[in-house]
Amino acid sequence: MDKQERQNKESEILAAAEQEFIAKGYDGARTTSIAQAAGVTHAMLHYYFRTKEQLFERIVDEKFRVMSQSMLAVFGDPNLPILERIKGGIEAHFDYIAANPELPRFVINEIITRPERYELLHRHAGVIVSNIYDNLQREIDAAAERKEIERLDIRMLFISIMSLNIFTFVAYPFMQPIMGALMADRNKFLEERKRENIETIMRRIKRQ
Amino acid sequence: MDKQERQNKESEILAAAEQEFIAKGYDGARTTSIAQAAGVTHAMLHYYFRTKEQLFERIVDEKFRVMSQSMLAVFGDPNLPILERIKGGIEAHFDYIAANPELPRFVINEIITRPERYELLHRHAGVIVSNIYDNLQREIDAAAERKEIERLDIRMLFISIMSLNIFTFVAYPFMQPIMGALMADRNKFLEERKRENIETIMRRIKRQ
DNA sequence: CTTTGTCTTAACAATTTTGTTAAACAATCT
DNA sequence: AGATTGTTTAACAAAATTGTTAAGACAAAG
What we know:
The structure is a homodimer. Chain A folds into 2 domains: 50 residues, Arc Repressor Mutant, subunit A (Orthogonal Bundle), CATH 1.10.10; 149 residues, Tetracycline Repressor, domain 2 (Orthogonal Bundle), CATH 1.10.357. In chain A, 78% of the residues lie in helices and 0% in strands. Chain A contains 10 helices and no strands. Chain A starts with a helix and ends with a helix. The interface between A and B is large, with 52 and 52 residues. The structure holds a DNA duplex.
């Protein structure tokens, strides 16, 4: 067996584990199911990753990283003028979540059911928060001073953007059947929803 | 043993089960832990509720009902003028979730990890959606015709309101430590956040 | 005060699930 | 080839967890 095949097996287990853990959570996931889905015996899974716990950590670390990146995306391109920058940030964040629609729910659940892991995202996110303060808040204050936009707390805006973008995906499965035609075509709905989120935030920002 | 004591035991088990299921999910919950928290032997738990599954269903049914009610609250008091009505709806919904902050996450998880139960909320929520259409959309259209507010799809507005209100609570545990002073005092933050959500939606509605 | 049905306990059974091990097997290096 | 190293398999062990049962305690009703 050559190296490529081995790595292949490892990554097949990881892929199967990701699916299983995201779909069923840590407690609901079964190492035997993961092994079966990956096409290996369950002894092999333990050979490669030792324990369920360790396998899970591999997935969680990866997902926390992606989640942190998605949050960074909200802050957009610093070279653009403030309104363009925020608009681009919303769009980038939306697209990021669209590419990983199950990410937020997984991460939030993980944090709530196992708070000890908290700190990992905390460390990642700590950097983000510094960014918000040191850069964007100043810029917003300046623009507000020039009467271009409303005076506001970037953290509140950040929460609003995350709310609007993330909820769309987290709640999709249970909103879809009660929304009729609006959500029947997923791609069309997501396009409309993205526009709606941008519009909502832009109106919150612009001076009336 | 009289009836009251019996009912007491039953409701103690239910209370303990609610806590455990919400905190750890179905798979993570342990019937022995529930029994212990309720102060009964685990055989008693099985005597009263037969299986873990049946005990869980009792909790889920209750939570689905509360969730449906909270969604209805969004539509506010039909006797008020449209802007007042929507503002009141946002506020009522926010307060509803504030009183049951773990409800949305629990319900969404339940639906996603066990889609077969889907239909329950679907049936409940179907009624809601009829309400939206037959009443509020008409009223909004009329107000838009009179140039009082923007023309918009009530379903999109509904999603936005739910997003802003629910995300606040679902994400609280992982936003709190990265938000510093803003979220340090929970009650103060929730008040500010409620105002912010109302402001955000009102600006989306009002004609510019 | 006996009968009836309900409640309680403790021990146990069945199953599921994670994890281990020893031996077979394959690949690689000298 | 022979030794060494790493991989795979099948069977097994250990633990946890849900659920059952038999025997008896207890309260309520006749």
